[in-house]
Amino acid sequence: MHAASRTFTLVTGVTIAGDCVICARGPFTCIAPQPASRRFRFLSQALRELSQERSTIMMPNPAEKYRPFPQVRLNGRRWPNRTIEHAPVWMSTDLRDGNQSLIEPMSIAAKLEFFEMLVKIGFKEIEVGFPSASQTDFDFVRKLIDEKRIPDDVTIKVLVQSRCDLIERTFEACEGASKVIVHLYAIAPSFRKIVFNQAKDEVKALAVDGTRMIKECAAARPDTLWIYQYSPETFSMTELTFAREVCDAVAQT
To answer: Span 88-251: which CATH code?
Structure first.
């Protein structure tokens, strides 16, 4: 709506500009000034047509598109009967996942201020970035380590994909830290088809090869305590049996 020109765009293809109706829907196309009764007739008809179009596109009951998840039948599970007796370890993803969501990612100075706030809050595991994905993230991780800004009781975490050059770059960024969590991910069907264009066996090999590379890079830097994590990317969209198969293969590597 623009008050100066008295222009009101009510729905797609239907605009009232002053005393004019600009309607480009179906047989109605009118730009000339019209009396109020005629303007409302054009508008009513346009809205009816729009409603009919949308009714053919949308499901009568959108809830029907959801399917119940398959039951996971595992014998001997003990955790459902356990009671949480102490607080879990909370891990902040703000500096990585949250930063990726911003139109303008944080600068090194902003990330440093945010990191210090997370430390002050009490987080003991902080995902600091994706150092192989951008120079800013790489430089930020190096700044934390070189300037000894990571408290002894805080563990930083970094994310990496299963590619040799990215894994090596990640370990370069983290070299010299006392303790680091390295997180590798992959396997969801959409990623297999669109991103990797690979079959299940190829994707499983990708996860295993990435795991092997991470173990080799960690072994070459014994002064750091390296903690390795692997997750099936978008696990809820991955076939359960295949997710289990890949996780078992990674665990046995």
So the answer is: 3.20.20.70
